[in-house]
Amino acid sequence: MPKITGFGKEEELQTYLLKSSNMWKVEDRLTPSYGNIREKLTELNVGWGKKIDMLARSKDNELVVIELKLHKADYKAFGQILCYILLIKSLRFIQKDYKEVRGIILANEIDDSLKKIVEEYKHWRTQIKDIPRINLKEYETPPNTKDISNVVDVTP
Fold first, then answer.
1. pLDDT digit string (tens) for 51-102?
2. Looking at domain 10-153, which of 3.30.360.10, 3.40.50.1820, 3.40.30.10, 3.40.1350.10 is its CATH number?
3. pLDDT bucket at 19, cuts 50 / 70 / 90
4. Best CA proximity match to 53, nearest among 29, 70, 72
5. Residue 48: helix, strand or coil by DSSP?
6. Beta pairing partners, 144
């Protein structure tokens, strides 16, 4: 049975996270940012009908691609965020402002299939240079609220 979330749509979760203090629940001093792109803070169109949910800047000046899942994230989210990160890395005019481009999958629940592929992926990262880092984070919402009470890093 899926965990209950107070957010009815992914857009509600995006709006909630756009407040810097709420982004800090995901990661210390994480702020919404698109670097050179100022017109939109969510749903950045990368072509082929695909959109990045959010981009943020870390305290270490990294560009963080955030893939949101309202409920459970499974192995498919891995391919999705990796594709987005590689697309952003290919856009040199964005990447040049940042030390690194990495990703966070933020979901109400992280499926074991996703944890397993990220664990294997960590091995690839030690073997091949410039493979981006991806973290898995689960959020909890108090009953009947549109608030995040806790975010836990569940990256294997």
1. 888 888 899 988 899 999 999 999 999 999 998 888 888 776 566 778 888 9
2. 3.40.1350.10
3. confident
4. 70
5. coil
6. none
Tens of pLDDT, residues 26-60: 988 888 776 544 445 566 777 777 788 888 889 99
CA distance 46 to 8: 25
CB neighbour burial string for 17-34, b if at least 16 within 10 angstroms, e if fewer: beeeebbebbbeebebbb
Helix and strand tally (H, E) in the chain?
5, 7
Return the structure tokens found at 76. Answer: 């498919």
* Other Cβ atoms within 10 Å of 4 Cβ, number: 12
Q: From the centroid of its chain, how far is CA 133?
A: 11
The one-letter amino acid code at 153 reads D
- How much is the pTM? 0.85
